[in-house]
Input
Amino acid sequence: MKTIQFFDTSLRDGEQTPGVNFNTAEKVRIAKQLESYGIDALEAGFPITSPGDFEAVSEIAKAVDTMTVVGLARCRKKDIDAAYEALKHANHPQIHVFLATSEIHMKYKLHMSEEEVLASIKEHVTYAKSLFEKVQFSPEDATRTEKEFLVKAIQTAVDAGATIINVPDTVGYSNPTEYGELFQYITSNCQNIDNVIFSCHCHNDLGMATANALAAIENGAGRVEGTINGIGERAGNTAIEEVALALHIRQDFYQAKTNIILEKTKMTSDLISRLSGIPIHKTKPIIGGNAFAHESGIHQDGVLKHPDTYEIMTPQLIGLKTNHLPLGKLSGSHAFGQKLIELGYTNLTPEEQQILFDEFKVLADKKKNILDRDIHALVAGNAISTSQSLELKNLQLQFTSNGQQAAVIEIETSDKEKLSDSATGLGSIQAIYNTINRIMDKDVQLDAFRIESLTSGEDAQAEVHVEVSNPETQESVHGVGIDFDILTASAKAYINAFSKLREGEKHD
Ligand SMILES: CC(=O)SCCNC(=O)CCNC(=O)[C@H](O)C(C)(C)COP(=O)(O)OP(=O)(O)OC[C@H]1O[C@@H](n2cnc3c(N)ncnc32)[C@H](O)[C@@H]1OP(=O)(O)O
Ligand SMILES: CC(C)C(=O)C(=O)O
Ligand SMILES: [Mg+2]
Output
């Protein structure tokens, strides 16, 4: 089985992500993490670009032990000298020399002819080889380069001493079929390449960076360049964790292994995300927040019965503790029942569970994320409504911005009698409470009103507490109402208090 190497460029191409700027200490920390993650070679920077980049490459060179440390250089002697200086303390130094070979780049950017480009490659790779044992050459914009000329450029670099040839899809233009064929074309047309490692470097402009890297591997690439979380110039680079996991999970197909310690994937990804300030999209493969989350009922039921039904890898494989079954409107009774058990509601009868499940579905239609506290509230709310003799059946409000508010309310008694009426008030809550007073034909006194948000977010559930007293009997009761809507929760709390007053009257 072949071994595929990983060349990480999170600190060089990754730092070309607009807005990303790692300081030296952060870069050293990342380098150490990448070494422990099993990265074979780390492009620590482009030393000529600034004193800061030079210092970071030097510090990483000193800090890293077994991993190869790479410095980038244009085909300019001063760039190669700077890389040499920065890497002089590295245990395993490597230089990466590049020059664009596509007609567009040669004509408009470099203002160089094909002959000048070939001469520059020969001169600078030869010079790099006089200072470094490991020399990598990249024909920038290879995938838009005329193929015969690309082979000439690569052959020139190999003849001058390059032992690693990287084939960049600089602008993310290629697709897996073409990119794979390009590796076939290069390897069958270049000479003396027995000891040359071919490497791929893809950008994600058309969303094909991972697929292209895998196509390169299928066609002879022994090394993959990429970044953690796929950060990088424009739409980013190949995400190393995606290729590493694809090779692992589909070893049957790719017949390849890597040196990556997969269990460190999540912590490595988290570190890059934290220090780069680039959050990971929820649906990002492997490391996105939803990668191991199952929301729909049929999937949740399957995963509860056997995770393999809907998971091609375990969360533990990438260093996560567990998968996640978020509850939402598409969840089913199995997942809901499992959540009730997790939260300690183990004594519910099947009928009680069914009532709660029906209420949960109504809530989930209104609320995007159902949190544990929502379930607690649901159970608590249900306990309130099943124990009370009055239940809110309907509430309608008419709101005017500069006048009296009006409410129409229907209440059902435990004998299934429906009572309804309407009233106005200065505010919506006063209108609701005046209406309930009319329905109950009693003027009680509202002594206290308190509202709490049970969960966070715009769609949080509200819990309303009221203290109500009967002036005739001096009896004082506490009522509570829980609902997604504040005004409904307020009505429920008041009705709950009335239920208690009625209970008290019955017992007198
Ligand atoms: C595909 C990639 O990701 S390539 C890497 C991109 N990374 C960066 O650019 C890192 C940050 N860059 C920098 O700090 C600066 O661009 C530097 C220090 C590298 C160069 O700065 P300057 O000398 O001011 O030049 P500037 O960036 O404006 O222009 C680039 C010059 O390099 C030349 N050049 C570009 N690529 C190469 C190359 N591979 N070999 C030789 N010369 C090159 C350009 O033709 C241009 O030359 P010119 O000044 O003769 O026209
Ligand atoms: C420097 C080169 C390899 C590069 O980043 C690219 O071509 O995308
Ligand atoms: Mg690049």
